[in-house]
Amino acid sequence: MIKKNTILLGDSLKIMKTIPSKSVDLIFADPPYNLQLKDTLYRPDQTTVEAVTQDWDKFNTYKEYDNFTEQWLKESKRILKKGGALWVIGSYHNILRVGTSIQNDGFWILNDIIWHKTNPMPNFRGTRFTNAHETLLWCTTSREAKYTFNYQNLKELNDGKQMRSDWFIPICSGKERLRESNNQRSHPTQKPEALMYRIILSSTNKGDIILDPFLGSGTTAVVAKKLQRNFIGIEQDKEYISLAKKRLKQTKVLNDEVVKMKKSRKDLPKVPFGELVEQGIIPPGAVLTDKKEKYKATVTVDGSLKINNISGSIHQVGATIQGLSNCNGWDFWHIKNKSTSILLDEVRDKYRNKKIN
User: Fold this and answer.
1) How far is CA 221 from CA 5, 135, 210, 237, 261, in A?
2) Domain ranges of the chain
3) How far is CA 304 from the centre of its chain?
4) pLDDT in the model for residue 269
């Protein structure tokens, strides 16, 4: 068994073969993009653009790159626990090829996330659109797998709204960007901690093991440590490992109370709408409305709703009046509270929290 919270020096493909099967909860892969850059890039003032020119990003052919991709994906599939998460990031240079291999290997893609860079590097030549985004593929081990998704936590992170698949996060800059004494970037593709924060928060729990087979400057390990997750990093460059270890020494672990995750709806005790009626939280005769107060339904003694000649549960009535096949009544209906209107789901949360505590 490989020691947790460690960084391993060497070839990713060789080291991945030594990791036990079904032992890791999440793999975040930031593989070489195979940019195939041939010419030096210049800004309008003729200064050189800091591009990715390292040997680790160079492949002779697409076939060679595909073979490399298939090898690390094969090991990823073996290493991940059933229902574990695979996150892969890439650009237009490689993500379509990687996505094909992911599906061929039997992974199930849950979402493609667009990381919208709010401060992208301009296209200095003016020959193409500014490349202002990268793509993340969030996958699990199979279509039938039960995977971790901390929906409620992501919703809280997004001001109470469902987290969308377009993430507006700036690229590394300022103090976060690691630089050498000559002000050159220490690593050409350093990812922002905010990006990893959202990934790890969304699909892992405290104590889970995260593997990054292309660790680079160590962002995955840093955020994992901060959020009380375990990490295994693999990197072939000694200088990058030194950067990562230096960052880890400076990283403080958040305390238990701060890291405590809000349970998802499926993990919380069931609270039927009728229980709120019985307890007088929403008494019979109360009027429920949609957000815009277009519809008004009356609560009856058995917890059903009535509006004109339509009656049924909060879900059935919500679906019928909208002409839909289904509706989550908890997220549709509101109840007036003095001058404000409160969503039923919020009423249920307050009642459930008092009940639990």
Assistant:
1) 8, 21, 8, 16, 20
2) 6-264, 268-356
3) 38
4) 81
